[in-house]
Every structure is written in C-alpha cells, then in structure tokens.
Amino acid sequence: MNGMTIFNHSVRQITGNLGMAIKISGWFVMLVILMLLVGYWLIPPELLGMITSPPEEMMTQLPVPLGEATTFMLLLAVAAVALSWGGALIAIVWHRYILLEEIPRGTIPYNPNYRIGKYFWSGVGIWLLITLAVILLGGLLIGILSLLTGGGVLAVLTSALVTGVLITALYLRMALILPAIALQENLTIGQAWEQSAGSFGAIAVLALMLTILSIVADFIIEFLAGVGLPVLIISALQLGFAWFYFMLNISVLSTLYGYLVQKREVY
Questions:
Q1: Residue 266 placed within a domain
Q2: What is the number of structural domains in the chain?
Q3: What is the distance between the alpha carbons of residues 221 and 82, in angstroms, rounded to a whole number?
C-alpha cells in the first residue's frame, strides 16, 4: 500500500458515487446554508459588524451588549449540536455505504441503531489527544527548525506543514476506531495503532496529500476573493470545498479501515 493509492481510491469513492454522496449529505448542506442565513438575519447588526471586522478593529467595537452576546452564544450552541449530530450521522452512513454497501433510506438517513453519540464523542476524544500533540510537537518543531533555518517566517511555515502532516497521520491511525463504531464492530485505539503500525510511511504520504490539498484550495479561494470575485461565489466555493474535504476524510478512513483491518485490496 502507498499513500497516493489510498488518496486516489478515496477520491474515486466520492466522484464514482457522487449521486449517493449528495443524497446522503445534501440535507446537511442545506441545513448549514439555512443556519448561515438565519444567523445572519438574527444576529444584531452591531454584533455582526464586530464579528466580520478585521482583528485590529474588533476591539474598538467592544463592549457588545449582554443581550446581543447571549443571543449569539445560544445560536452557536444550537448550531454546534445540530452540526455535530448531522456530521456524525453522515459519516456513519457513508462508512456503511462504502464498507457494507448498505443503501441509506429517507431524506435524512437516520437509524436508531446507529451509535451517533459514541461516534461523536470518540472523535472528540481523539481530537483532544491531537490538540495536546499539536501543542507539544508544534513548539518543539518551531524551536528545531528555527535553529536549522535561522528563524523567521520559513521556520514557522515549515514547522506548520510538518506539524500538519504528523498530526494528520497520528489522527488517521487513531481514527480507525470510527469506521468500526459505524459498522458496530469493536476496535480500540490501541488495536488501531497496532493494525496501522507497519503503514506509517504510507499514512504520512496520505496525510501530506490531504494537507497540501487543503492549503492549495485555501490559497486559490483567497486569491479569487482578492481579485474581486463576488462574495456569493466565494462563499459557494468555500462551502463546496468544505463538503468535498469532509467527505474525502470519511472516505480515507473507510479505505484505511477496509485495507488495514478488513484486509481488502485497494487499487
């Protein structure tokens, strides 16, 4: 196995099953758009102005009235719960479609047997471990690369790229438990770590591909925004890429689980 093969296979899972991907996640995209519109409509103008201001101007618009801040926090809480539940549901359904060929039913393909809560909280636990690793590795890498490169922007950018790849690779190894949860199978983080021990190089290449894709897409969208492309088009591009990248990450985990745990062939 090599990282490029896994990456290409995961992309084909989406492009080759685009209709099913849209069917499984289309309602969620519409929910996100609705939340953005409702939030834009409900958030008081003063608070919206503060949020959309450049960082250097944001402090000049404080303090925000307590009532307006409370409204914003409540909206954030509701949105966070809805998005977390919906994201976990989509991930489970897509894992099961890819690995079990299970056809989802209904506009919102919910099944009470899906372990949505377990999937979500397991993901949160993994990201807490990843956050700790970022804090430790990021500072260490900046220090080492500053010595090697003489410091400055190059050290920061290089350390950010290296840290991003390492963290993504660590995440992919631990997150093998998520497809297992979706399939209602048992797999611990320790077992996932052991199953992927011999494939760290391939997973690192895969992590590099995901990191580069994210950086390039962000750069292109920022460039298009800078040359004056309408805000509506920029927002559509951002939402479209966020959707694709989200589905790609789920597909990557499905592919890795199929290859490393279920011993399937990947081509």
A1: no
A2: 1
A3: 27
What CA–CA distance (Å, rounded) separates 109 from 107? Answer: 6
Give the span between the Cα atoms of 236 and 224, in whole angstroms: 12
> What are the CA-CA distances from residue 213 to residues 21, 22, 224 (Å)?
20, 21, 17
Domain boundaries, position 217: 3-261
9: in domain? yes
Q: Dump the DSSP string for 181-195.
A: HHTT----HHHHHHH
Report the predicted TM-score, pTM, of the whole model to 2 decimal places: 0.85
Contact 95, 21 (CB under 8 A): no
267 occurs within a structural domain: no
**pLDDT tens, the chain, 267 aa long:** 689 999 999 999 999 999 999 999 999 999 999 888 877 776 666 555 555 555 555 445 555 556 656 766 787 788 888 899 999 999 999 999 999 999 999 999 999 999 999 999 999 999 888 888 777 766 676 667 666 666 566 666 676 777 778 888 889 999 999 999 999 999 999 999 999 988 989 999 999 999 899 989 999 999 998 888 888 899 899 999 999 999 999 999 999 999 999 999 888
Residue type at position 225: A
Contacts 24+ apart (CB under 8 A), 23-27: 23/104, 24/90, 24/93, 24/94, 24/97, 24/104, 24/109, 25/90, 25/94, 25/243, 25/246, 25/247, 27/107, 27/108
82 assigned to some structural domain: yes
Longest dimension (CA), the chain: 59
